[in-house]
Amino acid sequence: MRFLLILCLSLFCGSAYAGAYLGITVDSPTERSIMIAYKEAGKDNLIRTDLKSNNQSNPYIDIQEAVFAELRYGKEIIHIYLKPGDDLKIKFLAGAANSTLEFNGKGAENNRLIAEANNRFKSGGYYDYEVSYLNAKILYSYYDKAQHMSPREYFGLVQQKSEEAKQLISESWSKGSIDEEVLAYVSDDLKYTLETQKLGYLIINRKKLAPGDFKRLASHYGTPSPLGTGTDHLVDHPAYFNFAHAYAHWLFLPGDAESLGVELEYYNQIERGMTGKTKYMMLSRLILKVYEFENTTDLAAKKFNNLKKECPYPEYIEPIKELYAGDLVDIPESDAPNFKVIDENGNYGNLSDYKGQVVYISFWAHWCKPCINNFEKSASMRAQLKKMGVVLLNVTIDLDENVWKNAMSKHTIYGTNVMAYDVDGVKKLYGISTLPAYFIVDKRGKFAYLSDEENRDIMQEFRDLVNK
Predict the structure, then answer these.
(1) Does residue 253 belong to any structural domain of this protein?
(2) Rounded average pLDDT over 343-358
(3) Which of 87, 156, 174, 286 is the most exposed place for a label (fewest CB within 10 A)?
(4) Is 284 in the same domain as 352?
(5) What is the reported pLDDT for 161?
(6) pLDDT category, 376, cuts 50, 70, 90?
(7) Is the model's pLDDT at 243 over the cut of 90?
(8) How does residue 378 score in pLDDT terms, banded at 50, 70 and 90?
(9) Which domain does 80 fall in, by range?
(10) H or E stretch covering 170
């Protein structure tokens, strides 16, 4: 009767009932319920269907367009592709769903490719690496190898798997029976799954590698970055989403994941190291996760106003407003934390002494080569900023005064040079885990931010701050 009703409605209403049918059979079931999750037109959908006495279920999925969905049975997840008009039959053994999958009916060819790709390249479960409530999944099979293989052996293995993945896509394309959308999805899935394993080597060996190895190895073995608008369409792809999280962890390396203020440093690294939709997705996610798990608005107080101004994607701003509710109503621009310093003559001072002036703070140390290089490369710009009236406050976190002064004697460092009186305290206040670290403070003593537009005029932006 239900089938006849849907059939009649579809005849009168056309595409309004152009959904897909599933026929699910579970051998030796351990549970009776199955959840089907998918996103259509930006909306998340979750359907429950129960197994009948014959261990089968025949749900109708009311979709108007093709979707990638998750079939969840207990702790097992089966990835499937459905489009209007499909009549897909799925059979599996409980407890070994992905390795025993059988597909038949209309839509089977598309789903056989997805299953084959998962079994050949993604089987064996995941190791979860989590810092700052950002979770990256690394395949267990690679996790074990990363601990015992040399970089050359490990990255060579990943490259070999990448070639095999390309071959699978090429062979599937030549059959002519697979939808282009599925080929593209599986191609991206395998590409970013394997790129995540490259970053996984650096994450897993974070305590063994020298500081310079993280960027060098990633560059040498061709790890891409999720930068620019070329990957904007992939932000909802599970493999790319996971890769973006792994990339955020790589940006933070070799920082101390146990240090205080690590969430702020993660935010700063993502802000500097990513662009496009990926950047805003990750920044929004970090703010949401910190509030969700710590019930604190500290990170949002420092960053949300600027994120709200810059982010062109309402879908990343509205959830923050909704979750924070009253905690974010008219949230004030955050004050730059005050800290005590000692100048070259041994005189004490405070950041607050410069209130009424624009301050460009540079945290550095004598051993930090990027710090020294940046000072020298930006000497001309710093001279112009100083002439403009910007206070260039160069704060060393060196603990030895003689080492600090010796470094200054060897290099041209424009501005007011001081030592942090309480190094650990200032690192905690500003969320510093890596150097260099830069901050701008406006005349009111509040954090200010430059735009991240490609054609920005940095000098004009500083001039605008000075003239406010």
Answers:
(1) no
(2) 92
(3) 174
(4) no
(5) 96
(6) confident
(7) yes
(8) confident
(9) 2-106
(10) helix 151-175
Q: Which of 57, 84, 106 is the last residue of a domain?
A: 106
44, 37 contact by CB (below 8 A)? yes
Among residues 246, 279, 303, the one where a domain terminates is 246
Whole-angstrom Cα distance, residue 93 to residue 3? Answer: 28
Torsion of CA 361, 364, 366, 367, to 10 degrees: -160
pTM of the model: 0.69
Task: Output the six-digit token pair for 364.
Answer: 């550095």
Is the domain of 326 the same as that of 288? yes
Are residues 236 and 280 part of one domain?
no
What is the C-alpha end-to-end distance of the chain, expressed in Å?
Answer: 73
Pick from 132, 4, 134: nearest CA to 60: 4
Q: Which residue has the tokens 């002494």?
A: 353
What's the whole-number mean pLDDT along residues 121-125?
89
For residues 373 and 446, state if they share a domain.
yes
Residues 318 and 372 both lie in one domain? no
Domain assignment present for 367: yes
What's residue 12's pLDDT?
42
User: What single string gives the DSSP state of each residue in 346-363?
Assistant: S-EEEGGGGTTS-EEEEE
Q: Left (φ > 0), alpha (ψ -120 to 50) or beta: where does 434 sit? A: beta
Judge contact between 192 and 224, C-beta under 8 A.
Answer: no
CA 148 from chain center: how many Å?
A: 27
Question: Under the phi-then-psi rule, with left for phi > 0, alpha for psi from -120 to 50, and beta for the rest, what region is 356?
Answer: left
pLDDT mean over 73-86: 95
The amino acid present at 432, given as its one-letter code, is I
> For residues 395-423, b (16+ Cβ closer than 10 Å) or e, as one string?
bbbbeeeeebeebbeeeebbbbbbbbeeb
Which residue type sits at 200? Answer: G
391, 360 Cβ separation under 8 angstroms = yes
84: domain CATH number is 2.60.40
pLDDT of amino acid 248 = 93
The CA-atom distances, in angstroms, between 449 and each of 360, 444, 461 are 11, 14, 9
Residue carrying the six token digits 């056989």: 112
Q: What is the Cα–Cα distance from 39 to 19, expressed in whole angstroms?
A: 14
Query: How many structural domains does the chain have?
Result: 4
Token pair 């004490």: residue: 348
Query: Which residues make Cβ contacts (< 8 Å) with residue 155, sequence separation at least 6?
Result: 198, 201, 217, 221
